[in-house]
Amino acid sequence: MSEPALSIRNLVRIYETEGERLEVLRGADLDLYPGELVGLVGPSGSGKSSLLHAAALLEKPTAGEVIIEGRDGLLLSDRQRTAVRRRQIGFVYQFHHLLPELDALENVALPRRIAGARASEAREAAMERLQALGLGQRLAHRPGQLSGGEQQRVAIARALVNKPQILLADEPTGNLDPNTSDQVFDALRAACRDAGAAALVATHNLALAERMDRVVTLVEGVVRPYERPAG
């Protein structure tokens, strides 16, 4: 078996507010392999977003390790973590977070430009990703001119434009109707397969989760294989 693209070890996340102490993650472990799609399920408040944000090096957990390319990303400097995120990690949110003043092509090209690519190369890479996701006729449309499903496909293209090894998605179909949700998931899965990216997708939709390579859940702050309830 190949080396994991991402290894999470003994991840702990504790929130403390106004004297209250909430331990969301209590030693979570997870390996994510190249080309693998893993569904992450669990009720609201179970720690799915906390796990994803820590894995993406967007937030520092209370304790634990997030190993990417043999290094614990949590021990890197802010500048080094930013470089790892740009090069190795793509993130898709439930709400697309596209820039409303930019068209689809510009939104997708932006991460490539931030990573240092020339404008022409960034536009070419963005166009390739958008065309692969069936948006070749929507390149010049701004987010407000796109449907919800189209906006989310633009967000997927943006997350993959730098060819990351790891894609993390937090309820990427959570605000879509069932038919559009299926279409967006199919697009996400195909894009990940094409890129060879390891993907961890948090979702409340068990039907979608079970179409992935495996499904895990958070139980009392620990990652466990998901088992469908009997009956």
Automatic annotation (TrEMBL):
Tell me yes or no: is Endoplasmic reticulum among this UniProt entry's keywords. Answer: no
PROSITE patterns recorded for this chain? ABC_TRANSPORTER_1, ABC_TRANSPORTER_2
Query: Residue ranges of the ABC transporter domain?
Result: 6-230
The entry's protein name is: ABC transporter ATP-binding protein
- InterPro entries named among the record's database cross-references: AAA+_ATPase, ABC_transporter-like_ATP-bd, ABC_transporter-like_CS, ABC_transpr_LolD-like, MacB-like_ATP-bd, P-loop_NTPase
Q: Name one GO cellular component term.
A: plasma membrane
- MF term (GO), any: transmembrane transporter activity
Which residue spans traverse the membrane?
A: none
Q: Say which species the protein is native to.
A: Marinicauda algicola
Against Gene3D superfamilies, the record matches this protein to: P-loop containing nucleotide triphosphate hydrolases
Q: Which SUPFAM superfamilies match?
A: P-loop containing nucleoside triphosphate hydrolases (SSF52540)
Q: Which family, according to UniProt?
A: Belongs to the ABC transporter superfamily. Macrolide exporter (TC 3.A.1.122) family.
The record's annotation in PANTHER family points to: IMPORT ATP-BINDING PROTEIN (PTHR24220), LIPOPROTEIN-RELEASING SYSTEM ATP-BINDING PROTEIN LOLD (PTHR24220:SF689)
